[in-house]
Amino acid sequence: MCGIVGYIGNRDAYSIIINGLKRLEYRGYDSAGIALYDGEKLNLSKTKGKVVDLEERVKKEIPTNGNLGIGHTRWATHGVPNDINSHPHVSNSGELVIIHNGIIENYATLKKELINRGYTFQSDTDTEVLVNLIEEIQKQENVKLGQAVQIALNQVVGAYAIALIDIKKPDEIVVAKLGSPLAIGIGEDEFFVASDASPFIEYTNNAIYLEDEEMAIIRKGRDIKVRKIKGDKLVDPYIQELKMNLEQIEKGGYDHFMLKEIYEQPSVIKDTYRGRLLADRGIVRLGGLENYIEKFTNADRIIIVACGTSWHAGLVAEYIFEEWTRIPVEVEYASEFRYRNPIITSKDVVIAISQSGETADTLAAIKLAKQKGAFVYGICNVVGSTISRETHSGTYTHAGPEIGVASTKAFTTQITVLTMIALKIAKVKGTISNSDFMLYLRELELIPSKVEEALKSNEKIEEIAKVFKDVNNFLYLGRGYNFPVALEGALKLKEISYIHAEGYPAAEMKHGPIALIDEHMPVVVIAINSNHYEKVVSNIQEIKSRKGIIIAVVTKGDTTVKEMADYYMEVPKTPEALTPLVTTISLQLLSYHIAVMLNRNVDQPRNLAKSVTVE
Question: What's the CA gap between 161 and 130, in Å, rounded?
Fold first, then answer.
């Protein structure tokens, strides 16, 4: 959560930092700030609100010259969102300036000690405590900035990604990481610092991703020194070549990133299986799986850990894995998993799913599973992310950057990867017939064209959205493979329109939710042709008899449900196990159009962050 940007080099730091903060807006934030050093004076400006508000304030308050600077977008943890609590924070001497993502859990104890030593505090943040702790260590220990940072970080408890400058050292930035992502871009005699690579992708395609408990001293014109925070051991950093390009993180003519990403799904699903799925030859080949297939085929159980949309993808996978591989599957909220003292053995396989690869709760679940001896397999989108490094093996989704906070293409590409994994395991185990194996390979290869067909209903879905944009509640129902899609559809609506919505298994409606049904309650029912079709028809009749309003997702050519429904959205005929890849498209579009009509900030909904890197 939050966003960090820093620069040191020969360019104008201000424009790089401001544009970088705009690139990181998708992470979610409530305030923004910037600190620039021009060689003589530290110029700082910060404000509650958006980066555009910061730009306006900067114009009035400070000069923007200088080749050294740091900037930040804050998502409030300690202290309400306001100008004072915004980052950067300055030490009492005015010489040290810091930006920080994460939470310092023992900040209150440290703050009390610093107050006893004469320090004063302007904000309610844990970050201001950290910068003054570093300053106090500098004075007491008579050490350089890097050493002071190292000593301080060995005293704090919590998570952090920090960037720190000292106006007495205008050629240096010190950075460190534990639990929050931090990337260092390496250019020609210049360096960039950011929460991810998007702020500097047009300047360099070389980056170092710090590991947990690592810090780096970045000096203009010199090599980066990376060392362990504990033990002071020097680290030989791995310089990674970035695959992202600038075009991928621009809107490309769409009104919102979310809409762009919805329409990218045919191509990114194809990218996800490209080179891995060879239907004409009957081959599924996943590099991260090939050497570990026996871990899966011999597993007593598969545990899937994830949060939010990724958790819903895991629920879809539960149906697929159990049907095809006959291995028991449990799907866990990563945020609860670690606190339940779960029973995990070396015969378990844990699959961790995360779009960003930085989700704090999922990372904690991974560490717990590894401690208990389980084999951990990661599925994430961001190359070089922490989850990709912490797991034993894994698969990238290759969805490209997802900027919209509400995940769309992440969901479908995660399901695509999980489907390929299940098919591979089932084939090796012999739990799927060769005819079914070949059928699903061919059908999975056709999914991009079917998603394109589902997208053609956009205008009709927009008309439906006009009817329901002012309602206060929605109910989403699905059965079997599409129960998780109902949950995901409700989540999308809540996230970006702020309309209350709940998803349920259709059969559970009679066990409580039916009490909500009346002529004011729209009920979205996923009613595609499947093994549950007749049961879903009965559920629709029960809703209609109570004057409920039916919005149905139906298979193209269906007549029964179309005649019963008040409104319908068609999707192409697809084998039931793969239907979530097409039924979710209609629900994404419905949520998007309702949110736009309500004038919501679709790409940056209130209170939400793209990558949840704090607990």
Answer: 12
Determine whether 466 is an active site residue.
no
Angle at 194 between CA 193 and CA 197, to 5 degrees: 110
Find the helix packing angle between 434-455 and 580-597, rounded to 10°. 20
Q: In the predicted model, what is the mean pLDDT of residues 51-75?
A: 92
pTM of the model: 0.76
pLDDT band at 248 (very low <50, low <70, confident <90, very high): low
- The C-alpha atoms of residue 290 and residue 476 are separated, in whole angstroms, by 38
Instruction: Name the CATH superfamily housing domain 456-601.
Output: Glucose-6-phosphate isomerase like protein; domain 1 (3.40.50.10490)
Q: What would the two tokens of residue 283 be?
A: 């081959």
Tokens, residue 190: 């210049």
- The domain over range 251-455 is classified in CATH as 3.40.50.620: no
Provide φ and ψ at 607, rounded to 5°.
70, -5
Residues β-bridged to residue 240:
207
Q: Which of these is catalytic: 22, 295, 409, 610?
A: 610
Tell me if 500 sits within 8 A of 474, measured CB to CB. yes
Residue 53 Cα distances to 83, 101, 108, 256, angstroms = 11, 21, 31, 20
H-helix segments, 326-433:
334-337, 360-371, 386-390, 409-429
Judge whether residue 1 has pLDDT over 80: no
- The strand ranges marked E within 249-380 are 277-278, 283-284, 301-306, 329-333, 348-354, 375-380
Catalytic residue (choose from 2, 50, 260, 307): 2
556 is catalytic: no
The token pair that represents 211 in the structure block: 């590991």
What does the pLDDT look like over 523-579, one tens digit per residue? 999 999 888 888 888 888 888 888 889 999 999 999 899 989 999 999 999 999 999
**What is the model's pLDDT at position 246?**
62
Mean pLDDT value across residues 244-266: 82
What fold is seen in the domain 3-248? Answer: Glutamine Phosphoribosylpyrophosphate, subunit 1, domain 1 (3.60.20)
